[in-house]
Amino acid sequence: MSDWTSESWKSKPVRHQPEYPDAKALAEATEELASFPPLVTSWEIEVLKQQLGEAATGHRFLLQGGDCAESFAECTSSVIINKLKILLQMSLVLVHGTHRRVIRVGRFAGQYAKPRSDPMETRDGVSMPSYYGDIVNRPAFESKGRMPDPWRMLRGYERSALTLNFIRSLIDGGFADLHHPEYWELNFVEHSPKAAEFHAIVESIGESLRFMETLSGISVADISRVDFYTSHEGLLLPYEAALTREVPRRKGWYNLSTHFPWIGMRTAGLDDAHVEFFRGIRNPIAIKMGPSLKPRDMQPFLNKLIDTLHPDDEPGRLTFIHRYGAERVAEYLPALIEGAKATGRTVLFVCDPMHGNTRKTEAGIKTRRFDDILMELEQAIEIHQACGSNLGGVHFELTGENVTECTGGARGLTDDDLKDGYRSLVDPRLNYEQALEMAMLIARRLSAKPSSD
Ligand code: PEP
Ligand code: CO
Question: What's this model's pTM, rounded to 2 decimal places?
Fold first, then answer.
């Protein structure tokens, strides 16, 4: 690793970055960011890495979810708490179904930067920079707000710190205590078509808990507090680099902006800046794998990628988040699984059933069908089983709010309903009811097969 520095990525082609008009302001903003305390610690990062290693061998299960893009405006008490609630509820359902301990990782406290296929957006003959997420510029089509502003990185850091502080306080205060799932009940759960099924699961877990406690005479402290970790796409490299540090008593460099950063599908080029940056950090890392890499090109790509990012086969270090879409997963996923196997290294496989299933309605609204999402997940579970592999987790775009962005689910939302509660700035998310129902359906599928030992 002697040739790596937190700046070495700058000598490589760097994709999907905003063009900051003022280099001096960019240098000042990143310098200030680099002087601030970290958002997470290497201690937490190492514990998560170890748990992800256990998920890779079938002994835990990863639930990763949150917004496609967090917005600065939605850094509010109720939005944060509702996201925590839905993730806790889903994890309870997954624990019940999979009989595996669930690792909870939010797409939050830093999910503010988005890749854009076109750096410019044109409407009615007027062009201006595309919206790259709140950490870069503003969403409204207005020239001043669309100009990338490096000082927004400081605002993003602050929002992340505010979000993390609230989540940590809630967890430490006992909000996530498994003895009290009623704390995380969302107001509208009672109206949900799935309410009865969820309450039956809660009741059954409560009973098991009481049984174990009666039997052993001690309270099950280990599960009365649950952990929450953070993740985001490590896209905006000046921001990620400014928060990447050496720490006392451990070797190497840690990206302390989040526990578990990932490389997006569009920035995973082998000789590009993102792979170079991620190679040198000690965090557990993930890569999104999508249909842009064809099955016939998979093996050489994986050989080089894994040699670069996962040379020591350290447990928990590398996760592949596959996102092929319901129509293509059967064609692509076996090549990914077999290709990874052929390298002799262990990786964790997680299915993102959202990004390969995006479509536009006739009215031009970006949406996803509940059934396509479910179909990709079901196929992924089966394909992993057939290949002697293990689907170790799921990755969702979801919200604890009552939005209407994806169609289908028990309430049967249609394209026409999308106009009523569409709030996402980028991709459509499962709403609270759809997310909980999805967890129930896949828990059932996953419970069809016990863990790999
Ligand atoms: C995302 O996770 O929001 C995203 C852009 O995904 P992908 O890189 O898989 O397209
Ligand atoms: Co998205």
Answer: 0.95
Q: Whose CA is nearest to atom 6 of ligand 1?
A: 264
How many angstroms separate the alpha carbon of residue 131 from the centre of ligand 2? 14
Residue 366, helix vs strand vs coil: strand
Taking the C-alpha atoms of residue 95 and residue 97, their distance in angstroms, rounded to an integer, is 6
CA distance 376 to 374: 5
CATH superfamily, domain at 8-447: Aldolase class I (3.20.20.70)
**Is 355 near ligand 1, meaning CB less than 6 Å away?**
yes
Given a contact cutoff of 8 angstroms between Cβ atoms, the answer to whether 146 and 137 are in contact is: yes
Query: Is the C-beta atom of 288 inside 6 A of ligand 1?
Result: yes
* Nearest to 164, CA basis, from 251, 242, 75: 75
How far apart are alpha carbons 349 and 318 in whole angstroms?
Answer: 9
Pocket lining: 290 vs ligand 1, CB cutoff 6 Å: yes
CA distance readout (Å), 255 to 8, 48, 104, 153, 234 = 15, 14, 19, 15, 10
Q: What average pLDDT score do residues 269-282 get?
A: 98
Under the banding of pLDDT at 50, 70 and 90, the label for residue 176 is: confident
